[in-house]
Amino acid sequence: MGQDCRSHDCAALRPALAGKEVRLAGWVHSRRDHGGVYFFDLRDRSGFVQVVARPEAAEAFKAASSLGPEDVVTVAGTVQRRPQGSENPKIPTGDVELIASEIRVLNPSKPLPFEIDEHSTVGEETRLKYRFLDLRRRHMLENMTVRHRVAAAARRLLDAEGFLEVETPMLTKATPEGARDFLVPARLSPGTFYALPQSPQIFKQILMVSGLERYYQFARAFRDEDLRSDRQPEHTQIDIEMSFVEEADVHALVEKLIVDACRAAGVELQAPFPRLEHEEAMLRYGSDKPDIRFDFEISDLTPFFRETKLKVFREPLSNGGVVRGLKSGGSWSRSQLDELTALVKAQGAKGLGWLEWESGGASSPIEKFLGAPEKEGLRSSLKPQKGDWLFLVADQPAVAAGSLGALRKELIARLKPQPKADFAPLWVLHFPLLEWEPEDKRWTFTHNPFTAPLESEEGKLDSDPGHVRSHQYDLVLNGVELASGSIRNHRAAMQRRIFKLMGFDDAEQERQFGLLLRALDFGAPPHGGIAIGYDRLIAILRGEDSIREVIAFPKTQKGVCPLSEAPSSVDPRQLKELHIQLALPRPIPAKQPLGS
């Protein structure tokens, strides 16, 4: 229909067009009958405008009388200023209206399962089933618009920085990257499977070996894992890899990209971003993704409790443990303190010590066991004021950090303090290269198996692998891991050495990672990169709690798409072609009633 369908977008009408003939197209948002004159709001992607149908235009008036919500129409008419006092300052077109001379219904709508309204309280399952209606809501449309603008800004920046956009395979080989793979049977090779990529990790490193030097893509990543608000079985990441770089080069590029991308969403950030060593982040915040918009910093109180008489603290200290604590405001009942204690116990801590600070010292069941050194340590480290609460954990360092980190997060959620900024990015640097997996009794990677150790710590790989720091870095935004990356092992010998520490013998290395290891032997340059969680970035910028709100067609927390009804069963002939037989668990038979 083109120009015959419309001459202007709905939101383009302004007083300067008064007296002009225009043609609009869109959806009927709502209709009102005001004493023999019909008013309706016409909506397209640009926004709303009010249309008036009067009896003088008989055909248009008749058509307006039967319009329903979400009917698709074209309207021709004359722009005029609204009568004085009837203006609507809430919308850009609020000073004008369109006097209809012609209304043509292109496609009527069936009765709606829910109103296309920002304040509709319809459940998520219904919203996703009728996602084509949900996406018509102004807020959802703005989410999709911001998503586009951020992507465009990122592409402009990366193009200006000399990056090439390259697509990597979606059907590839399964490799251990931390989550279950989605598998795709290969019909032409019965009994074998492709895997959907958890990330393009190996391929982007191969591109560096191939001499492309600077690569990116908006990559689809697939992970068969338990879902939550910031996870989907398929998601998008801005995937980046660079040759001949060090950590600082990657950080500088990413900061430029994030600043530009946020600006496209109306958010201003200042670079460079703050940096914290992983060890310091765990000590001060109990998390490798701390939300630094809030205080509640953790302090190490170990030196002040060395001679404590408090048995529950003395025993962990005698076994290499620590005492750490944090300060909080608020007023806490005994039942609430019990809830906080249960929270830290769920993280592995044996208990939670608490004190309410008074002008002369502390009030608590443990107060009588605290000597002058402990009280002075609390005073000098946590600097409490009268009415503050102090929470203490004595345990092994990792347990103390994790439990107080969870407590810190809970205190922020309950007390809702005013954040120091709307957006607070943070680099967390030099994660441990490896961590011990007690169930398998072997070392495993903390992020991915391709990360390079710090050169100064390579000597500890054989003697103390658990304390080797790596070139792994994460970008955190408002307590959310937004991006993760590292400088890679570009020498095959070092990569093989790390694989061996993780329990992969030569044969297993070749089977799992042969492609990468062969490539590294042919002049691989030093390289590193990062993957930015694109859905998470948009969700944070839009103030959404779930990434489902910024993905056009997401899955539910059970991995189901109510819109397309995926996943679903398939025709038995398809399974036969793939040489697949299903061995489904048999349903438990219902109990028969007595006497049957």
Tally of individual helices: 15
Architecture per CATH nomenclature, i.e. the level-2 architecture of the largest domain? 2-Layer Sandwich
Query: How many separate domains make up the residues?
Result: 3
> What structural class should be given to the helix and strand makeup?
alpha+beta
Supply the CATH class of the largest domain. Alpha Beta
Regions with little confidence, pLDDT below 50 for 5+ residues: none
CATH topology of the largest domain: BirA Bifunctional Protein, domain 2
Strand content of the residues, in percent? Answer: 15-25%
Task: Write up this protein.
The chain is α+β, with helices and mostly antiparallel strands. The protein contains 15 helices and 22 strands. The chain has helices spanning 58-65, 124-129, 131-134, 138-160, 201-209, 247-264, 278-285, 311-318, 334-346, 372-382, 397-415, 492-501, 506-520, 534-541, 572-577; strands at residues 21-33, 38-44, 47-53, 72-81, 96-107, 164-165, 183-185, 193-195, 214-222, 234-243, 275-277, 298-300, 322-328, 353-358, 361-363, 389-395, 425-429, 434-437, 442-445, 472-477, 480-487, 527-533. It is globular, with a radius of gyration of 30 Å.
